[in-house]
Amino acid sequence: MLVLLFIIFGGLAIGCAINVVAQRNPLYCAISLIGVFMSLACLYLMLAAPFIAAVQIIVYAGAIMVLVVFVIMLLNVDEEERRNIRMGLLVPAAVILAAALIGEVAFVLWSVSPNPTLQPSDVGLTNSIGSALFTSYLLPFEITSILLLMAIVGAMTLARRTEVLPPGARVVPGAQLLAVSDLDPSASHDVQTPIKSDSSAEAAQILGIVDRDQSKRD
Amino acid sequence: MEPQLSWYLALSALLFTIGVVGVIIKRNVIAMFMCIELMLNAVNLTFVAFASFFQDVTGQLFVFIVMTVAAAEAAVGLGIIIAIFRNRESLDVDDASILKL
């Protein structure tokens, strides 16, 4: 029974994975990848890891793939065009190397002994994972939270649209673009002249605005 | 007969290889990204299989952390993809070759 389930879900995973690589439309790739995630979640259930199976569905199929599909829809990605690449001698070389690799892996997998058997245990339950995560593995857990925070900040920085400038403005790398009203609140607020400078003080000098903090310090 | 540990390892190796092939032959950044996710999942399957067969919870904790890293990678990677698309109007990796000598 378990063998049959393994064959079904393993075959489904491999078929969907091949479809991910073979499809040209990224949206079809994404949907096949969701199939891979689902069948892997079923395999995790067979391996007595219900928590990991649930997290697989929620995080991968739920969160990450929604993000990917969202980006695909947002960018309106077109299909990859077919292109001809000269292979020549690469094809027989690839076949020979792949055969050698498959032979090695098969030898290792079939010759390793003893083969452990799956016994009933409470290793995969949420209880044991949670108690281990918050006792002996607390430091990796906290580091992961810092990593997520960094990812949030990085994603916001990368995807931020910085062009709220007038169409004629020229942006120089390393320079800062400021409006007059940012430097001098007493100036009229509809003045939007963009200027180039590396610092606010330099911008004020260019615009002829007296830097009040500077003069106070002097 | 029950599924053996080696079956899971073979399946995982196969999935990982398919992911590697995808990263190599794909031209679209998003498709390459999805193939990387496929490779991460193949490794996760290995971890869970070992954790279950040797009854050690550490493997499943590692899977949990790998999933977190994958989520962070998805957020940052898709941000980079959006930035590339904004600059070049294309998602073809061959177009983004400005660092090539």
Task: Give your account of this protein's structure.
The complex is a heterodimer of chains A (218) and B (101). By secondary structure, chain A is an all-alpha fold. Among the domains of chain A are: 1-79, NADH-ubiquinone/plastoquinone oxidoreductase chain 6, subunit NuoJ (Four Helix Bundle (Hemerythrin (Met), subunit A)); 176-211, no CATH class. Chain A has helices spanning 2-22, 26-46, 50-75, 90-111, 126-133, 138-159, 180-183, 200-207, 212-217; strands spanning 176-178, 195-197. Chain A has a two-stranded antiparallel sheet. Chain B has 101 residues and is mostly helical. Chain B has one domain: Orthogonal Bundle (Helix Hairpins). Helices cover 76% and strands 0% of the residues of chain B. Chain B is built from three helices and no strands. Classes of the chains: A mainly alpha (218), B mainly alpha (101). Chains A and B meet through helix 1, helix 2, helix 3, helix 4 and helix 5 of A and helix 1, helix 2 and helix 3 of B.
Q: Tell me which CATH architecture of the domain at 1-79 in chain A applies here.
A: Up-down Bundle
Rounded average pLDDT of chain A: 80
Gross morphology of chain B: elongated
* Tally of DSSP helical segments of chain B: 3
Low-pLDDT stretches of chain B are: none
Predict the CATH topology of the domain at 1-79 in chain A.
Four Helix Bundle (Hemerythrin (Met), subunit A)
Whole-number mean pLDDT of chain B: 89
- Name of the CATH architecture of chain B: Orthogonal Bundle
Classify the secondary structure makeup of chain B into a structural class.
Answer: mainly alpha
The count of strands of chain B amounts to 0
**% residues in beta strands of chain B:** under 5%
How many whole angstroms does the radius of gyration of chain A measure? 29 Å
CATH superfamily of the domain at 1-79 in chain A: NADH-ubiquinone/plastoquinone oxidoreductase chain 6, subunit NuoJ
Structural class of chain A: mainly alpha
Count, helices of chain A = 9
CATH topology of chain B: Helix Hairpins
Task: Provide the spatial order of strands within the biggest beta sheet of chain A.
Answer: 1-2
Unreliable stretches covering 5 or more consecutive residues of chain A:
214-218
